[in-house]
Amino acid sequence: MPRPGSISRTLKGIAIVLAMLVPAAGMAATSAPKDPKPAAPSSFTFAIIGNVPERADEEGPARTLLDAIDAEHPAFVVHLGNLKGRDESCADTLLEARHDLLNSLSAPLIYIPGDHDWSDCQRPAAGRFDPIERLLRLRELFYPDDNTLGQRAMTIMRQSDQVKFRSYRENTRWETDGVLFVTLNVPGDNNNYKTAGGRNGEYEDRLEANRQWLARAFGVARQRKAPGVVIMMQADPLFEDGWERRRAPNLLDGLLRRRPHDGYLALKRQLRTLTRDYDGAVLLIHGASQTFLLDRPLKDEDGRPDPHVMRARTYGSPTLDQWLEVSVTSGRTPLFHVRGRRIASEPPPEAVPTPVQSIPAQ
């Protein structure tokens, strides 16, 4: 049986330990902020170019443009296609030279093939190449692995990871600060739709690949509650042609040739459906022009524009001293801010467009 003295010493020891713990606990409780401040919003910028260079004498100005963009330290740069002119040769030597030009950029660069780069290569002035063979060569040259171009290359996801779409290495996806970016191979000249009889094999296969890739991107965006999606491609899909009220073509239309086939119609309809089911901001960026444009292209059957979908069209040859700069700030409405930039100068007031309206992330 313990002696009374030992019990007394034990109780005193416990009391001392408790006396030390209670103030410490009180200090820990009072040191925690009652109303913690939210984290500061993160932001980044990226740059868009396209249709440059289109002639040998534009390579020097294109180099100057890339240097000016590099000096701004964008998170990445996207070239929307047409890195050569329509009548320039599609030979390997020219493609390799333009590849080296883009690859010299310090920032990561994502290149999307344009119609001048492959689907127009059958033209006599371009060398009478097989367009599909040239597209395969572009894939070998520009997309040998899962890294972008640029000296600070970043890793991106390619549709070619899917067995069914193994060849579509140019269709890519990545995420920056929660915003989802997706590229599609959609070339100019009516999406390479051929009017000759028979199956439009290249067009139809690529149409299905693009449809699946875009649907998957929006599925990921909804699942992750991404605040925004940015879609980039080369062609202007001609939103102004009244497609919203157009019925599906029938056999008689084809026989009488009374309505030309819209190679972008399926894409426009899919965009309208996907954006209706998504609560974030959507920014569609394309090239196929030398002039800047910013508008709200998607309209319902009654002509009302979708307020959270914006379209931006970048500059191109012969405008070689300007590019698009897109700023993205998380937690801000609008999420995207698009403006034109000019080498060594700020844009004039009229060149600063209305920013994209977004719905805050849930």
Automatic annotation (TrEMBL):
Signal sequence range: 1-28
InterPro entries, per the entry: Metallo-depent_PP-like
Keywords, alphabetical: Isomerase, Signal
SUPFAM superfamilies: Metallo-dependent phosphatases
Region of interest called Disordered, as start-end residue ranges on this chain: 341-362
Molecular function as annotated in GO: isomerase activity
Superkingdom to which the source organism belongs: Bacteria
The keyword Isomerase appears for this protein: yes
Annotated protein name in UniProt: FKBP-type peptidyl-prolyl cis-trans isomerases 2
Originating species: Ralstonia insidiosa
